[in-house]
Amino acid sequence: MDFQTSILGRMSGFLYRCRADENYTMLEMTNGIERIFGYPADEIIGNRTRTFTSIMYEEDVPLMDEVVGRALEQRTDWTMEYRIRHAGGHLIWATETGGGIWDENAELLYLEGSIINIESLYQRIDEQTADMRVTASKTNEILQSLRYLKLLAVNAGIEAARAGTAGSGFAVLAAEMRTLANSSEEAARAISDAQRKAQG
């Protein structure tokens, strides 16, 4: 097996070359598109059975047009993320890096680049977000418990004051309870604030 075939076989995606038209008509594609997204390359090349934009999530196509158009105007490469509808019907997040190819007369010949499956990355982000929500919920429960502890400490201090000298030991305990509740509440609030910032 030659070097390129070996490397392409390990890619979670495919390479392409296409026209700069409204359908991004594919001229060449590697076979990774079938392995990852379920469509044989020869069905999409030349729009034989379907266009490339027809397998994209329809709401992402205008963004693709905008990003590619701006990059071509500036003669730069682009990188963007969008969703491709798998042949089985479910959506898969992909990242594309591409650029234009011009001839010696500055005429745009075609576009080329790579499209990589990043669905597993989005799944991990979703899982981490769910974990953070659970932690945030538990942090709120801790804050409620600490408020109750502070209330108990206040009541204990009042009872100790009523007891006079006999309640001096209880007063010390009440003061320690307030100190513990205050310091723990500050820590819990810091965790809660950090979680809110992380979630945007």
Structure description:
- The protein is α+β, with helices and mostly antiparallel strands and about 200 residues long.
- It has two domains: about 5-115, Beta-Lactamase, CATH 3.30.450; about 125-200.
- It has seven helices and five strands, in the order H-E-E-H-H-H-H-E-E-E-H-H.
- The protein has helices at about 5-10, 30-35, 40-45, 50-55, 60-75, 120-165, 170-200, and strands at about 15-20, 25-30, 80-85, 90-100, 110-115.
- It has a five-stranded antiparallel sheet, with helices on both faces.
- The protein is elongated, with a radius of gyration of 30 Å.
- The relative contact order is 0.09.
Brief overview, please?
It is built from seven helices and five strands; from the N terminus they run αββααααβββαα. It has helices at residues 3-10, 32-37, 41-44, 52-55, 61-74, 119-163, 168-198, and strands at residues 13-18, 26-29, 78-85, 91-102, 108-117.
